[in-house]
Every structure is written in structure tokens, then in C-alpha cells.
């Protein structure tokens, strides 16, 4: 069985260089909408082909790891303070003070492992959208990687900085359910109010890697695991931490409009859109889209409650808002960067406004 550090390291190899999806026909520079739609379809076909190739490569790597001897965990975990190259020793789980000494430091093995979204401005036709895509309402919070291993649960931001540590009922996440080596769980979550983890996606559960499964299967497994472990959703005398499911619906007009009428248990930040066949790959992915609630009527012809219009006080169009956002955050499309030979600059749409407030 492979160690968690080995498997986390392999996530880097699963990255696909996604060409950005271009413009929605509503914004297209092409006068011929059918031409723009064909270019859009071609980009998606090419990306899906690359994803299939990456899946096969990843499968072979993990099979070799599983067949290999189950060595001890690597003790050379890189721990770097902000702005330094300080190397720390591995966490001693028997020492309570040691459990907190690495909080605020970077573990480079966990940096840049989250799958990130793109603005959903190149939208498939309704038939494809309703058949192949899912919508997830997303709370305002911090986008984090949760790693439960060796009897402790750790939370990392997208840069690999450790935010906190605690014991949880996740497999591998506390000493009583630590089990054998290789029993670990990795989740993609939104952290709200410091103790509520809303689960977006599942990377591994109990040592079983899920990255090369399509999104709809991963969500089924995630919801099943949370349902089978109700204690994860209930605070107790040992911890206030909760791991909560998020609602999801198919991208059909009626279902989306009903979802938008929901009184969520959290403050809604935006909507994530996942293609049902997308694998979990770190970095920005054109098959994971992002919109603000007030953009839904203009871009998807989905009516939303009036209260969401307050998030657009300047009464901008979606295009004006996105252009201003990209300018403010020095965010250019991946295709533009590729053309100009620039390095990729990743902006996490899910939490960027939260970070602005923190700064």
C-alpha cells in the first residue's frame, strides 16, 4: 500500500494543461454563432482526450505503487515557514504540543493540489448542459485540503499552509480509527466559521484513491460515506468540527431555479458547475465552472431571488464584472498566457473575495 505522501506527490503528475474555454456565444467576437460553438466543442473534445490519456498514466502509476512494498512513511516532509526554507521534523502524535507547532507553516507536498474552477463564460448548449453538468451552491469560506492520516486530521490552504489540526472520525483521522498504514482520507472542502467543512469533492477515503473516477461517481461515494458516518456531521465533547454535504442538482432549468429558491444553511458565495465525467486533477480545469448567483439570469436564463442582486451593486453586466475581476487580480485566460509564453497564474474563484477581505 502506498504512503499518503507518495500519493499526494503523484497528484502533481495528474495535472492537465487546460486551454481556457474561450467566450460564451453571447460575448463572442465571431458573428457566426455556429462557428463559435464548433470551436468550443473542439476545445472540449481535445481536453477530454488529454484527460483520458492522463487517467491511464495515473492508473499505471498507482498500480505500481500498490504492488510495491509498503515502506515506512517518508520522514523527510518539507515544512517551510512563510518566506523561509526551514525544515522541521515529522509530527509526533504522542506529543500534544507538537501537534500545533507546524500550524501556519507550509508543507510543500500539499501545495497546489486543489482542483480550481474557471469562469463559466463558454457554456454548452442546453441539451449538453442539462445532460452532462451538475450545479453545486458554494458557501463563502476558505477553500482547503483536508488530510486525515496517522491518527490526526490536518487542514491546508491551497498554498500548502497548515491551518489547523484535530482528531476527527474520518478514516485515519484519529488514533482510535487510525488502523493500518495507508488508511488515510483526503477531501476538498470549503471551511466556514473555522469549524464547518462543506465537502466539495473526495480525493481518497480510507486509502482508496478516487481521482480517476468521474465526478458523478465521486459525489455518490462522498455522500454515501458522509451518510454512513453521521458522527462527522455532529459536534461532540471532543471536537466542534463538522463535515457537511452540499446540495447538488442537474443543470436543468427547473432544477436550478428550484435550487436557487432554497434557504441555504450558509451564506451563498457562488455556483460551481462540474462536468459529470471530469476527473480530479489539481489546478484550473475548464470542466469546472464558476458563476455568481446574479449572473444566472443573463448567462443561463435561470431566474434567481431578488436578494442576490445586492452582490452586484454597480449593476454591471457579467462580462463587465469578469473583466474588472480579471484586471484587479491580474488574471488572464490560460489560452492568453500560453500564447504570450507567460507562466500560469492561478486564481481560486471560490475564495478570492474572502482572501481580499482577510488582507
UniProtKB/TrEMBL annotation:
Region (Disordered): 15-42, 333-359
Domain called Snurportin-1 m3G cap-binding: residue spans: 113-293
Keyword vocabulary terms for this entry: Cytoplasm, Nucleus, RNA-binding, Transport
Gene Ontology cellular component annotations, sorted alphabetically: cytoplasm; nucleus
Single Gene Ontology BP annotation: snRNA import into nucleus
Pfam families referenced in this protein's UniProt entry, alphabetically: Snurportin1, SPN1_m3Gcap_bd
Cell compartments where the protein resides: Cytoplasm; Nucleus
A molecular function GO annotation: RNA binding
Domain Snurportin-1 N-terminal positions: 24-64
Protein family: Belongs to the snurportin family.
Function: Functions as an U snRNP-specific nuclear import adapter. Involved in the trimethylguanosine (m3G)-cap-dependent nuclear import of U snRNPs. Binds specifically to the terminal m3G-cap U snRNAs.
Name of the protein in question: Snurportin-1
Lineage of the organism: Eukaryota, Metazoa, Ecdysozoa, Nematoda, Chromadorea
